[in-house]
């Protein structure tokens, strides 16, 4: 009954009384720093965190249901976290959660009694019977890693050393990126059919010894036709994926995953290799043509599977470019372009091997014979 009355009375305290109480708790915490030595590990990004020893801190009677041994807990960044502090229900004491940052000489008070006093809205106190003062972190971030203490102090004797339950929170927050062969971070790439596609997955800020990278394509594990090269160094690993002579069927969303902790994806579009054919004026595919002297020659070069408007067709005769008598039309929207070569009143010296080229990607040729 005394406990109920005290908490009920706390709810009726004026704001001035609450502020005064908080200042009293802060003074006691700072004054007691030489009594209870923090066992926190450095949670900076450059140093791998070290868990606390689970040996008991206090030899006196414990104020906690499960003893006052330090507790190590681990959460994935972005998930909600709960730190438990279940005290003896017969104890008439004040309970506070504090965070001891290795970068600050002063602890930060997060909760007092059943109230949150932190400016961080992610942090709250969730009380659960019987007398479990649970510290709630709604969305854990990497900077939340470090030492937390559930402190119980006696209001009747503020100078009495507080009883402490230490909880070290380890935050797992791998950072994963994908780079191309030029070491540029990528999320979408295009390659021509037949190219060798290479990506490197780099995962950093790792803390576990059994982390491993796997590659997936559209939710399926990538196995055949892939070479893996994994390296591990200080808190980082990498894996290189290579697709040899990639074809259009290899297009899709590729994901590298570090266990099930974090991942990165890149969309790969393998462009179909353009096809080039030569047709005559009757729209027939030709590989060799004969004409009489004085005839008109009409040859059309058709390129399909063209992906960009930058592609261009040029005509050549015996490796010499033809600059006259050529018309050009394109329909890149439907993946094709064409060019028509017109030669009027041909003579025997017009005979030769005629080639149409789609940039330097592919070509088609037809021998032309002009007969007397």
TrEMBL record:
It holds the Pfam family ig. Residues 49-165, 174-267, 274-367 form the Ig-like domain. Coiled coil: none annotated. The chain crosses the membrane at residues 12-32. Keywords: Membrane, Transmembrane, Transmembrane helix. It comes from Homalodisca liturata. The keyword Transferase does not apply. PROSITE patterns: IG_LIKE. It comes from the Eukaryota. This is Ig-like domain-containing protein. GO terms for biological process: synapse organization. One of its GO terms (cellular component) is neuron projection membrane. Gene3D superfamilies: Immunoglobulins. PANTHER family: DEFECTIVE PROBOSCIS EXTENSION RESPONSE 18, DEFECTIVE PROBOSCIS EXTENSION RESPONSE DPR -RELATED.
